[in-house]
Amino acid sequence: MGLVYSEPACQSAYDGDVHQLYQVLKTDPTDLNIQEEHNGDTPVIAACRHGNLRVVEYLLKNGADVHLTNKKQRNCLHYVSRRSFSLMDYLMIAILMPILLLGYFLMLQKQRQHAALMKAVLSSEVNVDAVDYQKGNTALHYVCQRKNHRVVPLLLERNANANIRNKDGETPLDIATRLKFKKIIILLKKTH
After folding, report:
1. Where does the secretion signal sit in this chain (predicted)?
2. pLDDT means over runs of 10, the chain (192 residues)
């Protein structure tokens, strides 16, 4: 089960249905940046929430506005940064790990997909330092919380500000230090 959107463009993007999204946008091109009434998500935010790389690439190619934020003031980059393994992913990895390390390869594939999604969003003019209203976090805060050391360099290459403090007064480095994520600490200290 997932989110249910009242806007067909958002639902198609969330579901990963490029063909249906094409049909919706063919009928009404203004739906490219339509915001869902309930939470303010746009199609590109919906696609990022669910990790649909093909849909994100399609939307960006067609000029989706990556600067739009939803009612939590989160843009598409926030949702890419907040992505982590689902419960089903963890179960599959745990079950397949003893079988020729298949779980390990599944985990690597998921990490590569996440990095590809991050690269796609960062290839746009998205604001890498956008702050959400709820916690005052940037994308860099979220990837540090999730110990995503493979994605931190991608944000730093786009000059993400590692000195922004969230509402708890923490910088991304403070979060990585508190959680003892050594690789991320090293990456962030290189930017100082």
Report:
1. none
2. 87 97 97 96 96 96 97 95 72 68 72 91 96 94 91 95 96 95 92 70
Distance of CA 147 to the CA centre of its chain: 14
Number of neighbouring beta carbons within 10 Å of residue 65: 15
Which residues make Cβ contacts (< 8 Å) with residue 111, sequence separation at least 6?
A: 150
For the chain, state the CA radius of gyration. 17
Q: Which of 83, 85, 100, 94 is nearest to 47 (CA)?
A: 83
Whether the Cβ atoms of residue 5 and residue 17 lie closer than 8 Å to each other: no
pTM: 0.84
Residue count of the chain:
192
Closest CA to 62 of 77, 79, 42, 80: 42
Q: Distance between CA atoms of 191 and 165, rounded to whole angstroms?
A: 16
Give CA–CA dist 78/68, Å, rounded. Answer: 12
What's the CA gap between 188 and 172, in Å, rounded?
8
What does the alpha-carbon distance between residue 99 and residue 102 come to, in Å, rounded to a whole number?
Answer: 6
What is the Cα–Cα distance from 139 to 152, expressed in whole angstroms?
9
